[in-house]
Design brief:
Blueprint: H1 2-27, H2 31-59, H3 67-89, H4 92-108, H5 118-124, H6 127-161, H7 167-171, H8 175-207, H9 216-238, H10 243-263
Length: 273
């Protein structure tokens, strides 16, 4: 347990250094600083992976049961996606904003419950549950990056309209690319979330005696799926693009934040997290 605590502390400190260097590069572009920040982020991903494997070996289950475990896995997903996107597309600002979110999640984890009670673990442990949670977190990771792309779109659109020509504007991808990346991420996220909800419903039918369709988190999760599905429908059927779709995407992401808050509600059977 001590070695896991030391690894977690190292992750937080190195992560903070990486973000500070990315911020320095954001203020005053430096290829050397950016490269150091990237390699520190790679170290963070490696340590997170080691921490996750050690936790899995110690607890003898895929560690995504407690709030601490799910937030940690979500942070790992964000770091993984940002490294992949940085390698493929070299969008430095996306990496910076994504990892500010990832670091905030790790910081919140200091206040989260790390261990599930043995009774809860025995009752809830199931391959269906682990796949359900993993797919949902992957979908939320996709939606998070899509939201950041939409946020960047709105910022760039405003800067262009106000003719704010500066070095930050030059580092942003074109509006068309930001819109396209956001759409493609949601295109992957929606089927992942749909599969997660289907598996979650099957698991709950087997394991939970309560009526899950009256559960607030289940209802909001269905609403999240509906809103993101409408996003795709508006894009494909009516050809929505640009600012209107970016605002829709931002509103959809706010539902995900609401869903997270409901996880700990006494009204939800998800409160065991």
């Amino acid at each position: 347990m001590l070695h896991e605590s030391l690894i977690y502390d190292a992750i937080v400190y190195i992560y903070a250094c990486s973000i500070l260097l990315y911020f320095a590069d954001f203020l005053n572009r430096s290829r050397k600083v950016n490269r150091i920040a990237f390699w520190l982020l790679a170290v963070v991903w490696t340590l997170q992976s080691v921490f996750f494997v050690l936790s899995m070996l110690e607890k003898e289950y895929f560690p995504v049961l407690t709030l601490f475990e799910t937030l940690f896995f979500y942070s790992w997903i964000l770091v993984s996606f940002s490294l992949i996107i940085n390698y493929l597309f070299r969008i430095d600002l996306l990496v910076f904003f994504t990892n500010v979110l990832g670091f905030a999640v790790l910081a919140l984890n200091f206040f989260a419950n790390k261990d599930a009670s043995p009774m809860v673990t025995e009752r809830l442990t199931s391959e269906l549950l682990f796949i359900h949670i993993s797919l949902a977190l992957l979908a939320y990771g996709m939606f998070s990056l899509s939201f950041i792309f939409s946020l960047m779109y709105l910022v760039e659109d405003r800067m262009l309209k106000q003719k704010m020509w500066n070095k930050w504007l030059q580092r942003l991808p074109g509006l068309g690319l930001l819109d396209l990346y956001s759409y493609r991420l949601n295109m992957v996220g929606v089927p992942l979330l749909l599969l997660a909800l289907i598996l979650g419903a099957i698991w709950a039918h087997i394991k939970v005696s309560a009526n899950i369709w009256l559960d607030p988190k289940v209802l909001v999760s269905i609403a999240v799926l509906a809103v993101y599905s409408l996003y795709l429908y508006q894009r494909v059927t009516y050809g929505w693009v640009g600012r209107k779709l970016a605002l829709w995407n931002a509103a959809a992401f706010s539902l995900i934040l609401l869903n997270y808050l409901i996880s700990g509600s006494i009204l939800s059977f998800h409160q065991w997290l």
